[in-house]
Specification:
transmembrane helix, membrane, mainly alpha, Perm_prefix_1, transmembrane, single chain
Length: 313
Amino acid sequence: MTTLTDRYVDATLRRLPGRQRADIEKELRTAIADAVDDRVEAGGDPAAAEIEVLTGLGDPSRLAAGYADRPLHLIGPALYHDYTRLLAVLLATVVPAAAAGVGLVRALRGEQALTLAGDALSAAFTAAVHIVCWTTLAFAALDRLPRLRPGAARPWSVDALPARPSRRARYAELATLTVVTALFCTFVLLTPVVSTRADAAGEPIGLLSPWLWETGVVYAYLAAGLAGLGFAFARHYARWSVPLALAAALVEVAAPLTLIWLVATDRVLNPAFVAAAGWGPDTTRWIGIGLIAASSFSLLHTVTDGLGQARHR
């Protein structure tokens, strides 16, 4: 009758190369028999002792992988951190760049807003899938073929630790951000009453579309900017937590996405101001492209800054 030990050994050997099976079978059977004998001599039941020993050895597939020195993971610990770092950098740079590039091309062609947004999202998704797929395949190959790896990395030392930003540098950063935000909000709020163009009655013609004020979108946009400033102070002075980081990321992403949507739907500039200034279609198109490029850069900065914050916490 086939014993549990026979079944266990057979299940293990099936997963091993033929040249290794004879030696490993002898070693494994001897180890199991010795362990069972030890438990029987201590007063245990032979059948129960066999079950206990085999249970302690664990899954035969894992035991076979250990004998064959074959990993059961896709990417091992030696390369995992490099893999995640490179993947994060590629996703944070290539994906927004692909979406922004497609968006710019579609904007130059005068595509509708829904078409522009759909093509940009599709390009971002496709780029992300390719990045994850090929990066994972490359690192899986490196993990299984050590000869393909570059030379040994330089040993880590405390000299590699990043320096903490000084208090003065943080104050300067917050002061600069506060001044820029205040100037931008002031400029936007004054555009309806301060203008270089006036109508026949002498009233100023606002640079921005009246629709922004009628719907309140401009106030929501400025509120997002002020909330982003508040989160910048919270990052330095409050206890930074995951919910706070997620809320900050949503706020910091909302403003550039809103601006891209407004440019795509041609709701940023006031048509009356454009006509009074004598701007042609090319001028307004290039202004829109510049705003989309600036918004895309802001999105990229938000993603990379978030990754940096997460990496140092």
